[in-house]
Amino acid sequence: MIAAHLPALQVVVPLILAPICIIFRSATVGWVLMLAGSWSALAIALAILEQVTTGGTIVYALGDWAAPWGIEYRIDTLGAFVLVIVSAIAAVVSLYVKTSIEHEIPPVRRYLFHCMMLLCLSGLLGMTVTGDAFNLFVFLEISSLSTYVLISFGRDRRSLTAAYRYLIMGTVGATFYVIGVGMMYMMTGTLNMADLAAKVPEVADTRTIQAALAFLTVGLALKVAMFPLHLWLPNAYCYAPSAVTVFLAATATKVAIYAFIRVVFTVFGGVEVFEAFNVQGLLMVLAIAGMFAGSAVAIYQTNVKRLMAYSSVAQIGYMMLGISFGSVTGLAGGIIHLFNHAVTKGGIFMALGCIAYRLGSVNLDDMAGIGKKMPATMLAVVIGGLSLIGVPLTAGFISKWYLIRAALESDAWPIALLVLLSSLLAVIYVWRIVETAYFRQPSRVVEEMEPAPLSLLVPTYILIGAAVYFGIDATTTIDVAIAAAEGLLGAKP
Amino acid sequence: MSPEATLLLAMAAPLVGAIGIFVTGYEPNLRESVTMVTALITFALVATLFPVVASGAAPSVTLLEMFPGLSITFTLEPLGMIFAGIASFLWIITSIYSLGYMRGHHEQNQTRFYFFFAVAISAAIAIAFSGNMLTLFIFYEVLTISTYPLVTHAGTEAAKKGGRIYLGILITTSISFLLLGMIWTYVEVGTLDFKKGGLFTNGAGAGMLGILFGLYIYGIGKAALMPFHRWLPAAMVAPTPVSALLHAVAVVKAGVFSVLKVTLYIFGLETLRDSGVSDWLAYVAGATVIIASLVAMTKDNLKARLAYSTISQLSYVVLGGMVATSLGMMGGAMHIVMHAFGKITLFFCAGAIMVASHRTEVSQLKGLGRTMPVTFICFTIGTLSIIGLPPLGGLWSKWYLALGAADAGHLILVGVLMLSSLLNIAYLLVIPVRAFFSEPDPDVEAQFNDHHDDHHGDEHHDHAPATGAGAPVICPAHGIHEAPLPCLIAISITAAGSIALFFFAGPIFEFLKPIVTP
Questions:
Q1: What pTM was computed for the model?
Q2: What's the gap in Å between the CA of A200 and the closest CA on chain B?
Q3: Number of structural domains found in chain A
Q4: Number of structural domains, chain B?
Q5: A82-105 tens-digit pLDDT
Q6: Closest residue on chain B to A397 (Cα)
């Protein structure tokens, strides 16, 4: 009985737990609720993945209102995969968060923080499960609004401007998205994605639909932080509390990419979007520009969180590049990278959170010689860094392998070369950190530091361990990604 | 125990040892015992595999499927067996040597040193046993990363710079060329398994083969083919045992081994000969042989000179592969063995001289032979083997290389080999000759004695056995003894090995023969 309602429960459980935090107004209760919410979400997501892999796409009519009038939840392989990523990251973050916010958020406001984390989680999960274009907007706003609040919790006062900036940019993005949806509704009279997919081809040649596509793409690209619409991201990641940065970096942009894939490959699945509107060329150019610009700027950062934020801009470029090939291998490469980057970057930001917890800063200069004082933490940063470079036996290698393979299969060898060259830029920014941490003399502050507490290290190593594990045994992730890619491309008539 | 299990254990043993080293780091004697025992066990395991391979069997283990269609697989074949054999045998000797060197030199962080050393050896053996290109590539990169902390061991500004060049060149070449070539191969032929005769049997175009082959050969930066050779001299900032085992044996040999492996099992000698795509690389290798020798002449720093000599000698092996004849291939494969013993001896000697006398420059060594006779006799033996004179092993590999080049009609390359031998005499043999027959240079001796008086304790290695106060100025014997006993034992073993290889080259040749017989 329950099994049939899992898609609804996936969203509803964290959504209901969030206001309970407000009722109790207690940091501990809030944390326990967050723990319960995220772990039950993970259990549900795993159950859904199991159902999808054995029984195919799940279609769930919310409140028994049949589509296209009611809201429909629709979960295919890709959706189930993203659900697992998001809820797994949330579950690990919930272990990490209690210690991590000790120095960052005053006790009286912690219950609010937990409430917002739960809301954000349910928003992201909702975006993933929904099969309704407008409902996606609603969940997008739930997750975005809670994210703005979460960022402003940062210790540094600049977190307020960062949150404000993201609020402006995010709202523009969401508005663009809803304008696009409005235009689609005008032309087709439906908001259900599957329904849209069937009706769009008839009217695909109209200016309105083309404009709608433009609004949808730009709106979502803003949330994805795709170059050159990434300007909100570095500050938001940099000044948010450590746990929030981990959560955002590993999930928010990933779900936005998921929504992007949905729109391009499902809603417009009936149209040759790539050829008809030359989306492919545009995406590819911007993705490559992002890969280089993000990495190049990252090299010159002095704050490591900011450095990693710019690295994220570059990594998002890789994902978009994979998507832009429009082939099964390419799309699978993008999806694999989405997962691999989530665990890698999540792990790195957790390790940086450990450093911030002890040192109160993640400036490169303050971190001089820290390798000797926090060996386990720095080892995590190094392994994560190797995964960003794409060294074998880390998850990053698998992503890169598939992206290059996709490029070569499309006879685009210059692009393969560009992917490789841009990963060399990653060597430079990762090695700046390594050299600072291991070759410079520690300052007096660093000299007296203690290693990170286990309550932070264990979650960090869960993610970093995953980044290594999925770099060695990638058969599962790749099978899922290829199935997902085939599903998306197979939707074309 | 089945050969498959032994094969896996041989790679796992150094890793287990590494953990043991890490755990016993608090007690140096215990830690060194762990290293020694691990090295012995590893070699014993590798040694038991020799008869299996000699009987013509090719045991294979697939560890796991990394992604659909591609797995981490290990397969034994003669070439890899030889490489694993040398790496694991010389690890024992190097461990003995390190015992004297690292303590005599008062190096810091020795636990870290022994730990990464063991990891690097494990990676080298994994490269030797790899059954497909993906596996080889993975452990090639593991070897690069795990040797980085060894290269930068001193933690100084110079070490950091050396480390940058080391990692920069090795990572850049392997990622931009080798990885690209590999994925391209996979897209074209759908497999990366090593196969005798190569993978491109269905008549791929010469143009594509040429580019692809270039990507592979230059992608294997560890082979130090010019212009990607700068990392090797840069790596000389490492402690001498690292230079000796890794940068004369494990790392660089992993490079040339990979070159031969790619030549044999990805492209195939016949394909290469027919398409002629490897010819230009044979000449690049020839040029590297000569240019590196010329550069070596200009280097006064002993380790730098040996590094350039290594670059030159590595290109012998590459040349053997590039001429794409059976004899050339055999010569190249044998040169991996011969050069390993010769060059490790020379590096051991360089380290011994440094520990005993604190001298690092060639010009400071005049007359030192009389006070350090064992070291310099062994140095002479190593040099003669590098030159390729009887009764030393180096003769045979050079002989087959020349035959192989002649077979392919590259007479110029035969000339290159001969010329190179002359150059070897000019830049290597002069060192022991001057050490034995020249008078000590008064300026140098004065400088060294002053140095000891004024700056005692300034540098981390400045803890000379004697401080030199009031000693006669022109006397190199003053305060200088032979290197610590473990160093001398190690040097003598490798030098004796060079001689033994002259007499036992036959069995090695027979063992390797199956790689070129169809």
A1: 0.88
A2: 36
A3: 1
A4: 1
A5: 999 999 999 999 999 888 888 888
A6: B138
Considering the domain boundaries, does residue B427 fall inside one?
no
The number of helices, as runs of H, and strands, as runs of E, in chain A is 22, 2
Which structure tokens are listed for A158? 């600049």
* Per-residue pLDDT reduced to its tens digit, B180-191: 999 988 888 888
Domain coverage including residue A371: 278-493
Tallying the residues shown for chain B, one arrives at 518
DSSP B476: T
Rounded CA separation B408/B402 (Å): 10
- Between chains, do B67 and A401 touch, taking CB under 8 Å as contact? yes
Residue A441 lies in a domain: yes
Question: Within a domain: residue B66?
Answer: yes
Q: Residue B454 above 70 pLDDT?
A: no
Q: How far is the C-alpha of A472 from the C-alpha of A395, rounded, in Å? A: 7
Contact present, A284 and A334 (Cβ < 8 Å): no
> What residue numbers bound the domain in which B86 lies?
1-270
What is d(CA A119, CA B259) in angstroms, rounded to the nearest whole number?
56
Domain membership flag for residue A290 = yes
Rounded to 10°, the helix B157-173/A413-439 angle is 160
Locate B19 and state its tokens: 């953990």
Residues of A in contact with B190 (CB under 8 A): none
Classify residue A454: in a domain, yes or no: yes
A474 and B137 within 8 Å at the Cβ level: the answer is no
* Residue where the block lists tokens 């190690």: B490
Which amino acid is present at B402?
Answer: A
- Helix or strand or coil: residue B156? coil
Paired strand residues for A72:
A61
Question: How far is residue B7 from each of residues A410, A425, B11, B47, B48, measured CA to CA in Å?
Answer: 39, 37, 7, 10, 9
Longest dimension (CA), chain A: 70
pLDDT bin (cut points 50, 70, 90) of residue B239 is confident
Determine the angle formed by the axes of helices B180-189 and A413-439, rounding to 10 degrees.
140
Burial, B197: exposed, middle or buried (Cβ in 10 Å; 0-12, 13-18, 19+)?
middle
Q: Answer whether residue A417 is part of any domain.
A: yes
Residue tagged 């473990």 (tokens): B486
Could you tell me if residue B87 is inside a domain? yes
Residue B357 lies in a domain: no
pLDDT at A1: 63
Question: Judged by CB atoms within 8 Å, which residues 160-199 of B form the interface with A?
Answer: 160, 164, 167-168, 171-172, 175-176, 179-180, 183-184, 186-187
Task: Compare CB distances from B187 to A405, A424, A474 and report the shortest one's residue.
Answer: A405
B67 CB near a chain A CB, below 8 Å? yes
B116 half-sphere exposure, CB direction, 13 A CA radius: 21
Which of helix, strand or coil describes residue A24?
helix
Q: Do B167 and A439 touch (CB under 8 A)?
A: no
**Residues A404, B137: C-beta atoms closer than 8 Å:** no
